[in-house]
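Pasting as-is:
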Amino acid sequence: MKNQATRIILYPVHQISHKRFRKFTVFGTMNMNLRTEILSEHSKRQCSKIIAYVGNSQSRFDKLIQLVLGNDQLIAQRAAWPLSYCVIAHPFLINKHVKSVVQHLKKPGLHPAVKRNAVRFLQFTDLPDYIHGDIMNICFQYIEDPKEAVAIKAFSLSILGRLAHQYPDIIPEISLLIEEQLPFQTAAFTSRAKSVLKKIKHQNSHPPT
């Protein structure tokens, strides 16, 4: 029996949303060499093509994340982009890899694209208790680093804001960091910071029972 032709629906990356990409499933049985595709072109269209190819396939996702966690920086930084949106579309795909991702973020010299896309999807990921300490330390380090990209700082703030409900002791440190950063940051960071502050202050006034 011949392989069914794969139908890949492409959406512009800027149109990616939870609802839209959760509709993605694996179409047909077309094989794609992810390494070759990632090296051949770095564009929004190529990103969307890889997202559509991976769909909700755990095996395809596993191959993609190995490229992100590998030693080839060019491939890792390019693969991290579609990977983040695969996780947003199908959060269960990252479950068995969360620990590896967090450990990877501890490595010095990671490309900003790897860090940015990792903290982007970790905003929406169920984080097991045993990695909370590590991920909080990583996020605080990113926010404190004056050389870190604004997007990485903003996504890190959102992660800390989520965890603050479970760990209210970190709220003063988050508040202090935000106050220190605001005079030097962009409007986008300021907006995210104010949103996180409002959220954690509300949480602090309504502690978990």
